[in-house]
Design a protein that fits this description.
The chain is α+β, with helices and mostly antiparallel strands. Helices cover 38% and strands 23% of the residues. It contains 5 helices and 5 strands, in the order αααβαββαββ. The protein has a 5-stranded mixed beta sheet with strand order 1-2-3-5-4, with helices on one face. A hairpin with a 5-residue loop joins strand 4 and strand 5. The longest helix has 21 residues. The radius of gyration is 21 Å and the shape is globular.
Length: 157
């Protein structure tokens, strides 16, 4: 068997790009399991980090948020907690939500080393928000997302 014939056999045996894409798309259409990410489930998310030093508080008057903002805020917190735990498992982390007339501010502070922020920034920007991060003067880091959610555009409960 020549080289060309061997190459043809390998090419026929490997799945095509179209086959791979169809398989991925089929998997993406499968029904999601479990509840959708939402700040209404923040206590359950924090419970996933039970035994670790995580505190949280909410300021302002909580209200329904546009779905994109609600999911982005939840995912920012989820990713920040996971990264903080991965990079400094025993370091304290604090989560603060602040509702105001213009939107929602999500702030996550950690006592450990800085965490990767590219994904956090992308989530904030995908919801039309801004993202800031940096070291804290007393040590550790802070990540803050300011997400637009004007009170007059809140989704009904």
């Amino acid at each position: 068997m020549g080289r060309l014939e061997r190459w043809r056999r390998v090419a026929r045996a490997r799945p095509s790009v179209g086959d791979v894409l169809r398989a991925v798309l089929r998997r993406d259409r499968s029904p999601a399991t479990g509840p959708a990410p939402s700040l209404t489930r923040l206590d359950a998310l924090i419970d996933e980090f039970a035994g670790r030093p995580v505190r949280w508080r909410v300021g302002g008057q909580p209200r329904p948020l546009p779905a994109a903002v609600d999911v982005a805020a939840y995912r920012i917190i989820q990713e920040a907690l996971a990264d903080a735990h991965r990079h400094a498992p025993d370091a304290a982390v604090a989560v603060r939500l602040r509702y105001d007339p213009d939107g929602l501010t999500v702030e996550v502070r950690g006592d450990g080393p800085a965490i990767p922020v590219a994904g956090l920034r992308a989530r904030a920007e995908s919801a039309g928000g801004a993202f800031h991060t940096g070291p804290r003067p007393e040590g550790g880091w802070v990540a803050r997302a300011e997400l637009p959610a004007p009170e007059d555009e809140a989704e009904p409960a």
